[in-house]
Amino acid sequence: MMRLPCCFTTRAALSSSVKTDTYSGSKKQKSSSFYTHPSLLEMKNEKAANRVRVYEFLRGIGIVPDELDGLELPVTVEVMRERVDFLHKLGLTIEDINNYPLVLGCSVKKNMIPVLDYLGKLGVRKSTLTDFLLRYPQVLHASVVVDLAPVVKYLQGMDIKPKLYSASTGEIS
């Protein structure tokens, strides 16, 4: 069996550097690691600063973010811009978004696209999609698997057939 020399004293000296806090006089362990973990307070402060930037972006384009305080929002302005741009492509205006700002809490990839694909499979036409979303914007919050598909399956089991949404009357016929 071969013994490898190991210097525990050097390793211990590097990892146990002690720094004294000049304000409290307490001793704090200083890590010699190249990777430092951010503190929970730093993470909380960073999240708050990101939220301020997202709110500033929204105010800058005319969206009032007052109702969004309890909502989980994107961390970056870029992701929020992606959501706003996607809603614009669907035909929604800033005024429409202000009427239902909670739609900004929906992920484009996880919520909006799957819901829109499912609505298309049910027969909602692209030409009527904007009017449908103006009338029922909360549908973008729905989960296809958890909310929409079970209801549609139940209704189909009762021999209720899906009918097409009419943009001219605003009714499902």
TrEMBL record:
Keywords: Transcription, Transcription regulation, Transcription termination, Transit peptide. It comes from the Eukaryota. Belongs to the mTERF family. This is Uncharacterized protein. It comes from Solanum tuberosum. The lineage of its organism: Eukaryota, Viridiplantae, Streptophyta, Embryophyta, Tracheophyta.
